[in-house]
Amino acid sequence: MPEPKIPSSEILDRKLDRYPPFGFDCGRNQQNAFLYDRAWPDQAESLSTTYLFYVGDALAAYATLFMDSLPLSRRERGPIPYQNVSSLKLGQMAVDRRFQGRGVGQYALGFAVELAEEVSDRVACRYVTLDAEPDLVEWYAIHGFTLNRLRQRERRETALRHQRDPERIPVSMRLDLRAL
């Protein structure tokens, strides 16, 4: 039987202010390593900002954000006259195994989108972008994200040139804040 959803009122968000506490494990080595090896040094250098999400005293999730520029093909941009459009990038997001499937990831994603909307009110920010692992594309699509066709086509071509499997590369996705 699945664990019950955690009410948003029980999730506390906090901006990272030092190295994160040990014990977090999302089951993905790359995201675990980023949290412990890069999140604080990158934030100290103003390269990204990481937010931690707690349930009680347990670190349940994290999200790392930074500014991005999204290249769009003519077809993708519609009436937008510019090829590169400002966005907030969700560079990393992970949920500890103990809290997966309980709404914490959805809360963290909503936090990132709300922050992008706040930024957009003061400085142009049209999209939230991210690079989804192939097994998470459907989850992000359910939450309104669509494929960045130009960026993904470029990535596939690069993967093929380097003899990597293009089906295993991260998928570039975006959420249009104006569509919310």
Attribute tags:
180 residues, alpha+beta, Aminopeptidase, seven-stranded mixed beta sheet, 5 helices
Report on the architecture of this protein.
- The protein is of the alpha+beta class and 180 residues long.
- It has a single domain (8-147, 174-178), classed as Gcn5-related N-acetyltransferase (GNAT) (Aminopeptidase).
- It is built from five helices and seven strands, in the order βαββαβαβαβαβ.
- A seven-stranded mixed sheet has the order 1-2-3-4-5-7-6, sandwiched between helices.
- A hairpin with a 2-residue loop joins strand 2 and strand 3.
- It is globular, with a radius of gyration of 17 Å.
> What helical percentage do the residues reach?
25-40%
Low-confidence stretches: none
Radius of gyration: 17 Å
Helix count, per DSSP? 5
Number of strands: 7
Strand arrangement across the biggest beta sheet: 1-2-3-4-5-7-6
How much is the average pLDDT?
Answer: 94
* Class from helix and strand fractions: alpha+beta
How would a textbook summarize the main sheet?
7 strands, mixed
The CATH topology annotation reads as: Aminopeptidase
CATH class: Alpha Beta
Any idea what the shape is?
globular
